[in-house]
Queue: 2 jobs
Job 1
Amino acid sequence: MEAVLSIKNLTKHFGRIKAVNNLSLEVKPGQVFGMLGPNGSGKTTTLGMLMGVVNPTAGEFAWFGEPPTHHIRKKIGAVLEHPIFYPYLSGQKNLELNAMIKQCPEANIPKVLELVELYERKDDKYRTYSLGMKQRLAIASALLNDPTVLILDEPTNGLDPMGIAEIRELIKKIAANGKTIILASHLLDEVQKVCTHFAVLKRGNLVHVGPVNEVGRGEETVEVAASVENLNEILLAFAGTSSISRENGSYQVAMREGFHSVDLNKFLFEKGVVASHLITKKKTLEKQFLEILAGS
Amino acid sequence: MLHLLKIDLKKMTSYRTFWVIGGLYFITLGLGAASGMEFLKWIARTFEDFGQKININRIPLYHFPDVWMNLIWCAGLLKIVLGVLIVISITNEYTYRTVRQNIIDGLSRQQFLLSKIITNALLSLVSVVMIFVIGLVTGMIYSPSLEIKQMLTDLEFFPAYFLELFYFLSFALMLGILIQRAGLTIILLLLFPAIEAIIAAKVDNYLPEIIPFFPMRSIWYLIPWPFPRYAFQEIQDYLKLSSIAIVLGWTLLFNYASYLKLKKADI
């Protein structure tokens, strides 16, 4: 399958600062691609280059296998950093203007306004909107031309928990329609909930790229509690234990590769111990992310 | 082209400041142009206070063909208002960061600039038409006889007036793109003629021949001050090719500088 986006050795220097350094990656159709990284890791600069507002120092990228032009940008819906609109225009008029720029029919406007639930407020001036409404209008504008690719940069920044949940549902809804989404965020929970793939940037360097569902694989940690005095000795005797630690009255057992909680449970049972509490803990994206950042 | 003009007009026509400044400009232009006779009467009264009598009917301010150049020269003084309007239009795009979003949404940087330049041309054209209509009406009212030959004389100053406005709006646009802040740009736009005049006064002592090349001065040579002719002085009542070339040169240079800045900048 042809890549929606392929980036080769993309580099951007601001004076001595290397904002993005030799970045190469590919996004395939239908992926919900998360770009992770601490603040200032080069996410927005990268997206800025992809959308033609930041001139790359070196390297190249291609959308749908073609070198970038402003015509291609019309088919990509993008919200970078914060929503940007003319404050003195109404939501409706702002979208009319966007439709003119994207050269798409104005008939799409009611549809996207309905989708983001702003139809009732469409004739109010943009400057009267709340932050959540502004974010939603930005998403409406990005969807206006029925794009095949959607770029969202921190779409839930500054929103309250309800707003975050709304936007997350919206992203899921859009992803379900088969659109490719590139989502930059530092909210790991958000990425784990909606993304299929993710990349991690650190100070402009790509330090990891892979599917999200692989995050849970690898070594497990099992939390065990049992009313036995020498539980720690028994646990240490288990061949699959790599290390144990005690936390809040239960033991955290880090397992060796190839061993699972089933094996531990069986072992305890054979030893005549019945666990009163046994939880398999998979690695969260957050944990993996911190490991990746620490390891690079 | 028309598409780009529509985009920029859409931004401007819903902006109240645009109508306020634009409205003031055209009202002042209209009223100013129509009140020349009142001005003459005031001069006559002032002179009378000094015991001198002048017959204002012998000053053919509104007679064809004088009316054309008189109006055009006076209207040129008001171009600063249109300049401020353009500065606000372009610096708004930077303050609101909408220039960035326009490009993300699919305008090329050249198209963005072109939409602004075409608007400049349109505003210049509207002013030209306005002055032509005012000149035609007042000329018909005040001219003792309506001869076609008289009416058609000096009409070449209209293209020159268009060039004057378009040149100045290009300058305002360039300043806006380079500075990006409304206040600072407007101050510079207002001060620039004064700064240039001071420099010109210095240069006059050493290299007077380069003064016609100064950007603001070049307009003086394109459309000269017409009123000395009523004091029986010769004025240049034709267009000088060299002046046209200089003003045209500056216009191209201003727009090219805008283009270069916009092309190279990270927006």
Job 2
Amino acid sequence: MEQNFVYKLFGDGIIMYSLFVIIPLTFLLIYALIAILGELKIASWVQDRLGPMRTGWKGVLQPLAEVLKLMQKEDIVPDAANKPLFNLAPYVMFTGAFAAFAAIPFTMNFVPAHLNIGLFYIFAVGAFAVIGIVMGGWASNNKYSLLGAMRGVSQMVSYEIPIALAILSIAALAGSLDLQEIINQQSGGFWNWNILGGNGSLWKVLVIPFTLALFIIHFVGGLAETNRIPFDIPEGESEIVAGYHTEYSGMKFAMFFFAEYANMFTVSALITICFLGGWQSPFGDFLNQPLMQAVWFIGKSCFLVFVQIWLRWTLPRLRVDQLMYVSWKVMTPIAFFCFIAISVWSMLR
Amino acid sequence: MEYFKKIYDGLATTAEGMKITLEHLFGKKVTNQYPEIYHPITSGDMPPNSRNRLFVDMSGCDGCNSCAKACPVQCIEVETVRVSPDDENIPDMNNGKKRKMWVTKHEIDFAKCCFCSLCTLVCPTEAIYMTQEFEYSEYDREKLKYNFSNLSPEEVEEKTKMFQEYQAKKKLEQEEKKKAEQEAKLKEAQPEETKQEVTVSKTVEEKPAELSAEELEKQKAREERRRENERKRAERLAAAAKDKEE
Amino acid sequence: MTEKRIIDVDYGKVETERMRINMGPQHPSTHGVLRLEVELDGEIVTEVVPHIGYLHRCFEKSCEKMSYPQVIPYIDRMDYISSMNNELPFVMGMEKLLGINIPERIDMIRVALCELNRIANHQIAVATFGLDCGAFTPFLYLFRDREMILNLFEAVSGGRLLYNYFWIGGLMNDVPPSFKENCLDIIKTVRVTNEEVMRLLIGNKIFEERTANVGILPADVAVNFGVSGPVLRGSGVDYDIRRSEPYSMYDKLDFDVIIGKGEIGTLGDCFDRNIVRMREMEESCKIIEQIISVFPDESSDVRALVPRRVKPPKGEIYSKAENPKGELGFYIVSDGSVNPYRMRSRATSFVNLSVLPEISKGYMIADLIMILGSLDIVLGEIDR
């Protein structure tokens, strides 16, 4: 007979389950602080200046100062706003980013929920961010916020399609949707990583251009999912105000901020798992202990976050119709083409 | 074909831009950490003719008002009091000349000053000049009105009174001098003219003492009318006050 | 990729309404306090009405109460980004009225400083244009170089942004001994940074997509509206006051007049105006190099010909010069006294802004911000 789920939850497994929730959350909080500091410092260094230098030693405590500042600000809610939606919107967006952590494997053994449709689950849960944006824009009762939110929604939805095709190709290459399975197939050093064709014979150099193209498509789509430049129309100059998070102040604004950085990490983690080998060390079995695996995984994801920050300060932003052009007319056809090529390759393998 | 060229261009120019920013990421930074580690005045980066806050050296200012006239925004106000020669302690000005005017108020409103330095160029004694001081922000706009005069309000009053006394004394002296001159003239002319002289002195002496009888009567009548008017007015006011109470 | 959209679409029985929004005086993208009333049809702009006057300071009336040397600080504050160029036409006009011939060394200093100020102005124009686009980094690179130019100006005149340096009949004081060296340093740095900005911003595909075919200003429309400067030259019209009616030392100098050629997109779009400004910075560097090579080292008395009291004879004069933004003119009427009778300034940005409603019809609102940035206006000049 099936054990009662409630008994399981509050029985002997309670500590394990709470750890599975607390550890990723703590990690995410610490990561967000470091990411904020990283963004400020990297932005400054790219622009030939020093950045925050006064809070703490060389500005290390700046994110703490920012969080404290946002926490003690007055929480303004517009009078004509839709209060339940207005209050829930930032938390919904954060949920979308955090819920993906249930299926992301940090090491060989640590994965909170070992789903055999892990890839599909992460992708589906990422759609929560879209709902969060629409709620924020609609409930603000401000026509500029609504316009910004509409544009944001159209952008995020249309960029999910190339990402979906890229993920589908990886699923075809690996033969399953289970994340641990995908990572296990990339073991044995960086030559076996999916960006370089996955494991297989030397003939896989034929398929390297396609996987490289898919990596770039997935990365650009990830940029659009998190509303970073060059795709930051919802946040940037959309009719002169700040888009969907204009009317937010204080803790809720901090939550939007936090959700954006968490989303960045989620997207980078997905790319790492699919293309860069997840927690596998690039030297094969050398340095492949569980603790080092976590380090490799976090290191690779943080490198991709760094590339996202780097791109933000290099490029100008795209206009709305150009954004749609890039998604529908450039990325989707190429992703289709690569998907066909990779499916043929995995059939012949 | 153009389609593929566009894609290639996009990726290539992005990569080029990323290379430039990467070089700057590890390059030299140009921030000057002000004020503890670097300060423009102490590090000598401030040029000697930089135009910042004005300063007026009172020992050189002679109250000529040229700076106030030259200012395009009228931010200087100068008020002076003449130095009375009876004053015991008159310090000399710093270029050795004697001081002729006390400057009681020399106010510059730095909220209005446009730092054009036209006032420094017209000052004949170079008492007003531009310093290198640029950190003088205040919370209250009234505190930006700098009064450079070094006389306290009591001293200002004292000097003004002294000058007025001196003026009054001088006037008195002048009048006495005139009288003495006139008497001297009269004494000289006395042996020549007798009659005219007597009548002149009579009329001079008589006028203030006596009034004619008619005049006296007119004055009395005027006084009586005035008293009547006052009484009537007092009655009217009393009646009005009574009405108000009721 | 951006085509001008057809505005009059037959919607049939569907009720549509054009939206009027207000891009208010406080705005991160208009360069100053400018209010734009924009009428939108969905996303397409159908009409733009600019409202100005938020920075009006009554210069022209106040100047009637002051003597001529006191007017110069006021003129500085019109186009506060390039103040040396503002003072030049006024001072030249007064010298013509008074009949003063200034020595050549003073002319050389004036032209060198004006060209340096031209570089500084174009640096701001390109930097803020990139900022409107979303590129934050070139802004800081160009401002870092502008600091060097401002430090030079501080050593020469005492002020960083507003100088009161050109006087009627000469200059306020002589240049410091390190003037030549500083100028050559600046030119070297400006060339290096310009090359970087060309690769980082102007050559970027996204930037090209944003600015090509946007805000096309045909040449005849430009001439009819009376615009001048890079806006006019970007449309292909070869007109530069330094070439057609040379003043000061410009007839002895060798430089090219840059006109737009429509390399990417059509002739007269935002990209052309921008590239004209970038290349004019290089031309200014050439001019400064030529002047420095013949500059006499020994200092002379720059105040020798400054009259003690400026009292021009009765008459009037219109003197103009090539400001970085276009043609700046002063019409001075004097009635023989120490105060001007009337001092009218023909401001560059005022005329350049008038062309905005004409060229922004049919584009999207994000394009409107780019067009406004490419016209390079400064509200101090428009409102005076």
